[in-house]
Structure formats: C-alpha cells, structure tokens
Design brief:
391 residues; alpha+beta; Diaminopimelate Epimerase, Chain A, domain 1; 2 domains; 17-stranded mixed sheet; 21 strands
C-alpha cells in the first residue's frame, strides 16, 4: 500500500456545471449503512461551508430527502470525508458526519463503525491509496475521537492494475447477499468519547427515573458510549420487532429520560441534541448467541446494531457485574468470541482481554463488507457554496 500525493485541504475553487457546483463523490455502502464519501481536498476547509455542502448533497432537512442522496432514515443519512493522515503512525484520516432527514444539524461527534468499513475501499477508488499486493492494509484515524483501526481489504491484480475486490462469500446480517470480507481491528477503543471504559467508575449504576422508579444500568464506552438496560426492567421482552418499538411512545419517552440522566453520569453533559449515548436494551439470547439486543440510535430502534455499539455491548458481556454479564452466555478466557443478536440476525465480535488488573480490552476485531455503488459528482446549488464564504 502506497499513499499518493493528496489534493491540499482547503476551499477549492468551485467546478461549475451551470448554476450548480460539481463535487467529486463516491457513494458507498459500509456494513449496514451507506452514504456519500468525499476527499478532504475536494471539500471546503471552513466547517460551516462544509456542513452546508453536506446538507445540500444529502437533501436535508426534508423527511424524504427528495432533493439529495439521503435515504430518509438515520442509517442512510451519513457521510464520510477522508484524507491522508498527518500522523506518522496512521495512513488515513476519517471524518464521519451524521445527518438526519428532518434536521439541519451535521453531527461530527459520534463514530460509525459501519461507514468505517468503506474508508479503505474509498481511498483506493478515489486515488488516495495505491495498492501494491493482493491485500491492502491501512491504519485509519477517526478524527472524532482519535480511535485507530487497522483495516484490510482484498486488492487483486486485474487487467488495468490492482483493484478493490467486492465479490466474495461473506454475509453480514442486515445486507442482502454476500461480498468480500473487510477485516477491522480496533487498536484502542476504550473511552472513545467518555473518560474511560466505565465512565462512572462502576460496572453498574442505579438510576432514579421519574415515573419509572429505580433502574439498574451499565454505562460503558468501548468505541461507542452505551447505556445498557435489562429490557424486563422497562416491562419489555427485548425481542419486540423494530416496528413495534418505534411506535411504542411510552417506551421511547422512558428511554430518552433515562438517556439524559445517564449522559450526565457519563460526563457527557446535556445530551439532548447529541446522538450518544446510544441506548441498548438487552435480554437473554434466543438463537444460540451470547446476548440479545435492541439498540436505539438514539430515538429510533436500529434495524440491526452499529459496529461499535456491538463491540461495546460485547465488552459488557464479558465484564463481571454488568447488566449484560448476568444474562450473557460467554466462555471464560482472555480471547473470547461474542455473538450479539439483533433484529436482523447476529454480529460476531472477537475480544482480547487483559488477564490481570482492571478490566481492559486489548483487542476488538470483526468482519464487515462494503461496496462502491456510484462514482461521479454530486451537484449542489452554487449559492450554497458561495453563501458560505466560497467567493
């Protein structure tokens, strides 16, 4: 793998197509999410200008996102910006952006492990990396939290050089068909947003919620801040369908009230306008896995579960004393495999644990897939580019 000379970052001149600006764009699926990817050098350096371009490209705010690339759900209202890394120990820098169909907020504070799976394929497709062997491994720095992931993709030799191979036999639940495997090794994810793996200092906290009573929770962050709750404590089985949970207003109100309290406990302040912590209801497994989950992101139930949410939930399963541990079926040892059941199937996470001392995860590894769906230009109105200081 060889980095290329990248386009300099910072307010490039607009490429006009009539009354619109053409911005180079690669539309990617990463795991169970999808969205447009951009080279950092093609985007405005000013954050306000960049966000305006992202909103216009996605078609937000509009519940149906008819005037853009968004898919009218949070899972398909995501974007990635990738550039060469300024650090010697990483190859690429990844800025994830979460948009919403009906909001003009561009949130760059969370991570997204699914979109992370598309970063190295995108970098090769867009010329940021040049593969040199049958597999390409790159270290990716997520700018949001400083998380570093080592990602490996297949890059066989073709008639016109090496290319990203998307064909294969790997299936991930939530995505139709099979594809080539993309291996992600997270090098250090504990306390990615919070101050520590267990930000409250406890494996379990007792929280008083008005109208509900005391609820026991585990507040944990191994790549994604999560609040883990026994579904039965909220008078649910945890095996309800996504559709049923999304119309359950009483439950959603309870979950949000609990989230706001736990956000303060986790040192995250007022999380009213934040996409974290995610709320994860857990229950005993039903299909031979380790634990069953229903993950809220944060106000609607996830069709499956996010990559880093799965890693964090799996971590809770192996830590004695957590809400998840008491109902999880997991083997002992320093290297364990955890199968996290979710509405669309299951998610397997391999964890390495420190055998001594305080709880510490030494490795988090998993397999995802990705695919390039479209490459070309996304067109945004010229006033969007110009009104944000791009004259």
């Amino acid at each position: 793998m060889q980095p290329t000379t990248a386009t300099p970052v910072g307010s490039p001149p607009p490429r006009l197509r009539g009354s619109q600006v053409a911005v180079p764009c690669w539309f990617m699926r990463g795991g169970t999410s999808r969205g447009p990817f951009f080279r950092a050098g093609d985007m405005p350096s000013d954050r306000t200008a960049r966000d305006a371009v992202l909103l216009a490209a996605m078609g937000s705010p509009d519940p149906r996102q008819l005037d853009g690339l968004g898919g009218a759900t949070p899972l398909t209202s995501k974007a990635g910006i990738v550039g060469p890394s300024s650090r010697a120990d990483t190859d690429l820098e990844f800025q994830f952006a979460q948009l919403q169909p009906d909001s003009d907020i561009v949130d760059t504070t969370p991570n997204c492990g699914n979109m992370l799976a598309a970063v190295v394929p995108f970098a090769i497709e867009s010329g940021l990396l040049v593969p040199e062997s049958d597999t390409t491994t790159a270290r990716v720095l997520t700018l949001t939290t400083g998380l570093v992931a080592e990602i490996t993709v297949r890059t066989p030799e073709g008639e016109s050089g090496r290319y990203v191979d998307y064909a294969g036999d790997t299936h991930i639940d939530g995505v139709r068909g099979t594809a080539a495997p993309i291996t992600i090794n997270f090098l250090d994810t504990a306390g990615s947003v919070c101050s520590a793996l267990l930000p409250t200092g406890h494996t379990r906290d007792r929280v008083e919620v008005a109208g509900i009573g005391p609820i026991e929770v585990t507040c944990i962050d191994n790549g994604q801040p999560l609040v883990i709750v026994d579904a039965s404590d909220l008078n649910r089985t945890g095996h309800e369908s996504v559709a049923a949970l999304n119309i359950d207003k009483e439950l959603r109100d309870q979950v949000e009230a609990l989230r706001l309290i736990c956000g303060e406990l986790m040192g995250l302040g007022d999380v009213t306008a934040k996409n974290y912590p995610k709320m994860t209801l857990v229950s005993p497994p039903a299909r031979g896995g380790t634990i069953n989950t229903r993950s809220f992101i944060p106000h609607v139930c996830h069709e499956s579960i996010g990559v880093l949410a799965a890693v964090t939930a799996a971590t809770a399963c192996v830590l004695d004393g957590t809400v998840a541990h008491e109902m999880a079926t997991v083997a002992d040892g320093s290297d364990v495999t955890v199968s996290v059941e979710h509405p669309a199937g299951e998610f397997t996470v391999a964890l390495g644990l420190s055998p001594t001392g305080a709880p510490h995860v030494t490795k988090s590894a998993l397999v995802r897939t990705a695919r390039l769906i479209m490459a070309g230009d996304v067109l945004v109105p010229l006033p969007v580019w110009r009104e944000e200081g791009q004259r």
